[in-house]
Design a protein that fits this description.
six-stranded mixed beta sheet, alpha/beta, binds 2'-monophosphoadenosine-5'-diphosphate, 12 strands, globular, about 280 residues
């Protein structure tokens, strides 16, 4: 695939940005669709994010993703943010409008729901009790998604109780804060458990969570994707629960940006999953 002088250009801004899998997956989609386009990594220091975003229209970029640690700053920097970005308080996808204004969205909530639907065939959060571990940026997106799905109860379990309380205040019903040492109680009768903490990541601290109280019908989702099969997911499968890995959300959250910049609907399938999974191992 050659990139011509007319190529549509987008990318991802992060600091550091080397760990981002977004270039691998967007360029896979571009090649597959034969689109004259490119998606590039941009290492942008935190104190220069506003400047970097402002340069996009002048450079002729279609837009950009923003990743850690820039999502909150991007929310503050864009000219307009959509409803879901405002609720989450963070932007991960920026589109340069025809008039040069920057339009911000957050596709993490969409990616979370689409990941469950695609891996499970069908999934609805309506009326369920869900346990969410963690209260950082990823948890905000997942809580917003579960609220939109019509969950009956969202049990927010976090090591630092104050952060869980702050999220309950921000989002309101049906969130309830649960102390970290009571995390196993939060699994009683839950239809969904989501780990949004970094626990369980290769080389890091493990997530200590006994699943004895979790119904076998429950779905367990880990947003950690290195390794793909975390100890939490392995334990869930051993219990007979359905398990959804973190790679799936990573792939689906990328879809709206790709569609907006390059004008084609990308498809998440096994070929893409394998392509990105191989890169994760490398
Ligand atoms: P992100 O934006 O990716 O969600 P974050 O804001 O740094 O990242 O949040 C990380 C989450 O992992 C937090 O909920 C954090 O708990 P605290 O709020 O108490 O910091 C959680 N976390 C990280 N290390 C942890 C550990 N060793 N035990 C329990 N929770 C941990």
């Amino acid at each position: 695939m050659t990139i011509s002088g007319k190529a549509i250009v987008a990318g991802v801004m992060g600091w550091p940005v080397g760990h981002s899998r977004s270039p691998v997956l967007h360029n896979f989609w571009l090649a597959r669709a034969g689109i004259d386009g490119a998606y590039i990594p941009m290492a942008v220091p935190p104190d220069r994010l506003g400047e970097a975003l402002r340069a996009l229209p002048a450079l002729g970029f279609a837009g950009t993703n923003v990743t850690i640690p820039h999502k909150e700053a991007a929310f503050a920097a864009v000219d307009e943010a959509d409803g879901i970005a405002r609720r989450i308080g963070a932007v991960n996808t920026v589109v340069v409008r025809g008039d040069g204004a920057l339009s911000g969205s957050n596709t993490d909530a969409f990616g979370f729901v689409e990941a469950l639907r695609s891996r499970l065939g069908t999934w609805s959060g309506t009326g369920i009790a869900a346990a969410v571990l963690g209260a950082g940026g990823a948890a905000r997106a997942i809580v917003a998604a579960l609220q939109d799905e019509g969950a009956a109860e969202i049990r927010l379990v976090n090591r630092t109780r104050g952060r869980a309380d702050a999220l309950c205040e921000r989002f309101g019903a049906p969130l309830v804060a649960v102390d970290w040492h009571e995390r196993e109680d939060a699994l009683e009768g839950a239809a969904l458990v989501v780990n949004t903490t970094s626990l369980g990541m290769a080389g890091g601290a493990p997530l200590e969570l006994r699943l004895d109280g979790l119904p076998a019908e429950a779905v367990v989702n880990d947003i950690v994707y290195t390794p793909l099969e975390t100890p939490l997911l392995a334990a869930a499968r051993a219990r007979g629960c359905r398990a959804v890995d973190g790679l799936e959300m990573l792939l689906h959250q990328a879809r709206p940006g790709f569609a907006a910049w390059y004008g084609a609907e990308p498809v998440v399938d096994d070929a893409l999953r394998s392509h990105v999974a191989v890169d994760l191992l490398g």
